[in-house]
Amino acid sequence: MAMQVSKKSRLAAPSALLLLLVVAALLPPPRAEAGHDGAGGDDEPPPTPCSPADRAALLGFKAGVTVDTTGILATWDGGDDCCGAWEGVSCDAATGRVVALQLEAPPLPPPRRSYMEGALSASLGGLEFLETLVIRDMARIGGAIPASLSRLSRLKQLYLEGSMLAGGVPGSVLSGMASLQYLSLAGNRFEGKLPPELGSLPGLVQINLAGNRLSGEVPPSYKNLSRLAYLDLSNNLLSGAIPAFFGQQLKSLAMLDLSNNGFSGEIPASLCGLRNLTDLSLRHNKLTGVIPSQIGSISSLNSLSIDSNLLVGSIPESLFGLQKLWNLNLSRNGLSGSLPPGIRHGLPSLVSMDLSHNHLVGGIDHFFRSISPARRLTKNASSDMSVIFLPRQLQHLDLSKNSITGALPEFGAGASLRWLDVSGNAIGGQIPSSVWRLVGLQRLDISRNKIRGTIPASVASMASLRWLDISGNALVGRIPDSFARMARLRHASFRGNKLCGKIPQARPFNLLPAAAYAGNLCLCGKPLPPCRQI
């Protein structure tokens, strides 16, 4: 009986054997013992130690740093292998050559700041296999870029940002970096002209020289940079005309920032041919003439900032066909005329619009109705409807210091709106009681207009409000007692109206300066003299 095998057992045996074979196949092969000559092991070989030449070059850089509060160089303890525990150093595992040096100051709570103090050592030029060199936000690395860096022919990325590097931008050094694709020397103290030698590096995809003291014009050799996608020359002292070749030959441009310089002349119409452009900033220059009528051709545009120039004329209607535009700033120019009819159906992605400090005209109610997408109106809705919807995503709207007339409309929705400034116009009518529907509003400025009537008590329901300025109008009556519950308000001004009665005796109203209530009829209570007892 003991030797007898049941039919069930005979059937199960092959299945058990098959299971063992499957498990064995999934297990890793046994490791070869040390010193074994067989081919059983497939472990990767250990990485090659750091090249002695590269180690010496790195220690040369460390010697040039006199102060290091970042703690990074403390990990460079003199051990033989700089590819192991030396922070910021990366090596090729097969050759042991240093291919990347990335040193970035760790963030600290302000006002504290970590930094390195010293100079860039010429020994960095000995890292001949280096592909990436990043020394960012070290604050106190000064002096010039060493000429020896021209030997870094394999370098693809050079970021020397946020420090005190000075002198001219060394074009002869940079032109030796034949593989360079990404260049940023932003936030230093470089002076002199833009180096024309950069035009000899056709592989450049990014140039960022912002935040220096560079002057003069853009070299014509830059027309050779056909792969350039990112160009930031902002916050310098550059002058002359914006080159037309930016739009004619730099067809890959996606970001162009020339802001805070001294560029003059007109905006080249050729920029409107940049089909990949998403961000264009020409703000704070001396540009004249009109906004090119073809501006709407840049269909990929997300952000357009051309404020603080000397531009005149009307706003082109084509601009309001930019379906992806979320930021529009045309403020502080000499623009005139009314908003074009095209705004009625355009800008569905708009988040922020600043048209302040111009000479624009038109009714404020028409404007609010215009910026509302047409799809929000039902078939039977009248074009003169008085419940007005703001674009759902709109957060910032500034129309201050123009010549806008009419009356503020009744608001139907605007939960995303954070900032509304229509001060310094000729707006009349009354403050609509529906203003409370702007539930996310943090700043409301309707000062220096011709608004009359009383202050709606519903304003007190705007729980997010931090700034309220209704000064310089013709408002009458009292400041509503309900304002006493506006505890989150930080600034308010009621001056220059015809208000009377007791100021709400709660923060912040009883702590504001007396000037916030000046020029009214008979306001009383802190911070003004006490009200008379009747």
Automatic annotation (TrEMBL):
<keyword id="KW-0418">Kinase</keyword>
<keyword id="KW-0723">Serine/threonine-protein kinase</keyword>
<keyword id="KW-1133">Transmembrane helix</keyword>
<dbReference type="GO" id="GO:0016020">
    <property type="term" value="C:membrane"/>
</dbReference>
<dbReference type="Pfam" id="PF08263">
    <property type="entry name" value="LRRNT_2"/>
</dbReference>
<dbReference type="InterPro" id="IPR001611">
    <property type="entry name" value="Leu-rich_rpt"/>
</dbReference>
<feature type="domain" description="Leucine-rich repeat-containing N-terminal plant-type">
    <location>
        <begin position="52"/>
        <end position="92"/>
    </location>
</feature>
<keyword id="KW-0732">Signal</keyword>
<feature type="signal peptide">
    <location>
        <begin position="1"/>
        <end position="34"/>
    </location>
</feature>
<keyword id="KW-0808">Transferase</keyword>
<dbReference type="Pfam" id="PF13855">
    <property type="entry name" value="LRR_8"/>
</dbReference>
<dbReference type="InterPro" id="IPR003591">
    <property type="entry name" value="Leu-rich_rpt_typical-subtyp"/>
</dbReference>
<keyword id="KW-0677">Repeat</keyword>
<keyword id="KW-0433">Leucine-rich repeat</keyword>
<dbReference type="GO" id="GO:0004674">
    <property type="term" value="F:protein serine/threonine kinase activity"/>
</dbReference>
<protein>
    <recommendedName>
        <fullName>non-specific serine/threonine protein kinase</fullName>
        <ecNumber>2.7.11.1</ecNumber>
    </recommendedName>
</protein>
<keyword id="KW-0472">Membrane</keyword>
<dbReference type="InterPro" id="IPR053213">
    <property type="entry name" value="RLP29"/>
</dbReference>
<dbReference type="Pfam" id="PF00560">
    <property type="entry name" value="LRR_1"/>
</dbReference>
<keyword id="KW-0812">Transmembrane</keyword>
<dbReference type="InterPro" id="IPR032675">
    <property type="entry name" value="LRR_dom_sf"/>
</dbReference>
<dbReference type="InterPro" id="IPR013210">
    <property type="entry name" value="LRR_N_plant-typ"/>
</dbReference>
